[in-house]
From TrEMBL:
Keywords from the UniProt entry: Disulfide bond, Growth factor, Secreted
Record's protein name: TGF-beta family profile domain-containing protein
Highest taxon listed in the record's lineage: Eukaryota
Annotated InterPro entries: Cystine-knot_cytokine, TGF-b_C, TGF-beta-rel, TGFb_CS
Primary residence: secreted
CDD domains the record matches: TGF_beta_GDF8_like (cd13751)
Amino acid sequence: MPHYTRRHSHFKGLSIINFKFTNKVLQNEVHEAVLNIHVQELEPRHNTSFEGEDHFTINLQVSRVTRNSQGSKASVPYTDNSVKMSRKDLKIGKWLKVNVTTMVAEFFRLPREYLAVVVRVQDSRNRMSLVVPHPSSESNHALMPYIEVSLKDDSHRRTRRHIGMDCTESTKEVRCCRYPLVVNFEEFGWDWIIAPKLYDANYCSGECPYSFLQKYPHTHLVHLAAPQGSGGPCCAPRKMSSISMLYFDHDLNIIYGTIPGMVVDSCGCS
């Protein structure tokens, strides 16, 4: 998931949105890419032709801006969708998702400094002006378009012995086990996180009897010797993994980052 830059230009009267990907991300294959755009009516009109209509058909076209053989800018359309929006959605604005997997995958295979995109949005009957925010000093940064990219896992999968147990709340297991836990950032009021809004974090819980999933036998021996201040084996994460996040920094830039130690993959006694 990249972040947009503040650099922007225009093509045929439309603002070009430049997305920048890190070299590390560009080394992967694209599984899926989704463009998120916020669509809103620019100037609500009181038009008698709208009477009796609660929903409107909106046409969306996403194109990539490239250079032709003469070196001039050219627009290559990749998606052309129609969506239904209610009168309320048009007035207050709504986030729409557009699949741009083919466009992003082609860019990854032959990358440039930026992926330059233009978005055309209009009422199917051309009765109203619609707007998609673009990077500029006057823009509402919380409504900037952004791309979510899922990368293919090319690692060689091998059958291996899993250390640790997986349980559910209904499992009658008192020993150390990994349990499912879904964390919802919105419940904490963390609105500065754009994506994911929730994720599977998991947690460890249970007792650690003698020799059960012991990572360090020394811990059990110390417990038997019982020096003052020592503790017994503790059920804790054995292995943890990272998640990718899209969030706002202090300057309201949209940042893509990989945060380590966010998911418990296995539990054991230490």
